[in-house]
Specification:
9 helices; 250 residues; five-stranded parallel sheet; binds 6-methoxy-1,3-benzothiazole-2-carboxylic acid; alpha/beta
């Protein structure tokens, strides 16, 4: 997959892209990311990318001309067309289903907003408008990095065995089960004995039940759409009813 990023803050990207699994995905060629400075498509001496809003009001608005020039220029560099994604607070909240869709695309062009927003005509360039969620950020650069991280780890060969079981649990709509490593006893807190029993069937059953319990406790909104057996659903409903009474054990 190829990713082009258009931003007025290109320097934010390199340290994150070079690190960890993302760095490995780049070095193996599973994904390539080119970060472009929007100012390279300005035509004035000050390299202006923003201007005052028509109608008045606070803040500055991203100008359309440099963005249009940049997107047209970048889109003409390869055969085909990139899927143009604009990161904006008005966008659709990012979900793993959207990440899976985008991960299958051969070419993404991510447009990061700054200032108070975009001239609305810029949005005509967008195939998708995405947001990370309902909190206020200063720009689209961090959401773009989050999106790159999420699509990179789905590229073939980027993760080993980690992918399948982890993502399957999430796609069944459940949070992960609790995990432990050594030492078996730490400051009076012991690992659940079933996990050191060697009984793999009991371990699997315990993990499944604890994943359902956690989801019911922490994300009851996920339970309705989770893929649960009748017995599991009844268990989840018990946990949720208990939580409403303020109970902490179940
Ligand atoms: C986002 C105008 O540029 C911005 C500002 C905030 C912001 C984004 C772009 S994208 N917040 C989000 O994903 O929540």
């Amino acid at each position: 997959m190829r990713v082009d990023v258009l931003t007025v803050l290109p320097e934010i990207f390199a340290p994150v892209l070079g690190a960890s699994i993302l760095g490995r995905a780049l070095s193996t060629g599973a994904i390539s990311v080119d970060v472009h400075d929007l100012r390279d498509w300005t035509e004035d001496r000050r390299r202006t990318t923003d201007d005052y809003p028509f109608g008045g009001g606070p803040g500055m608005v991203m100008k359309p001309e440099p963005v249009y020039r940049a997107v047209r220029d970048l889109a003409a560099r390869e055969p085909g067309r990139p899927v143009v994604v604009v990161l904006t607070p008005q966008g659709e909240p990012l979900t793993q289903a959207i990440v899976r869709d985008l991960a299958d695309e051969p070419w993404l062009l991510l447009l990061c907003g700054r200032y108070e927003g975009f001239d609305d005509r810029i949005l005509s360039l967008a195939d998708r408008e995405l947001s990370l969620g309902d909190y206020v950020l200063t720009g689209g650069e961090l959401p773009a990095l989050v999106l790159i991280d999420a699509v990179a780890r789905l590229q073939p060969g980027v993760l080993g065995d980690e992918t399948s079981s982890h993502d399957e649990s999430f796609s069944e709509g459940l949070l992960e089960y609790p995990q432990y490593t050594r030492p078996a006893s730490f400051e009076g807190m012991d690992v659940p004995p079933v996990l050191v029993s060697g009984d793999h069937a009991r371990i699997a059953a315990w993990r499944r039940r604890e994943a359902v319990r956690r989801t019911a406790e922490r994300r009851p909104d996920l339970i309705a759409r989770a893929q649960l057996s009748a017995v599991e659903r009844e268990f989840a409903e018990g946990v949720m009813a208990n939580d409403e009474e303020g109970g902490s054990d179940g």
